[in-house]
Amino acid sequence: MGIPVVHVCTVTPISLTVGANRIVPAVAIPYPLGNPKVTGQEEFNLRKKIVERALLSLTKPVSEQTVFDN
Rounded to two decimals, what is the model's pTM? Predict the structure, then answer.
């Protein structure tokens, strides 16, 4: 068994095409883990949510491609 990984991405269909098994959608191509139009605290909260979702996905067993979007 290998090391579990998660692909945090902005274009989920590409991740599905290349065969990533744990996929966490990000915000947008120029700013995958942030949003420069919000306050610093709002951006921190957004980043924290995405990273927490990615870490949680690493604890879930998967047998097929899975998108963790909530």
Answer: 0.88
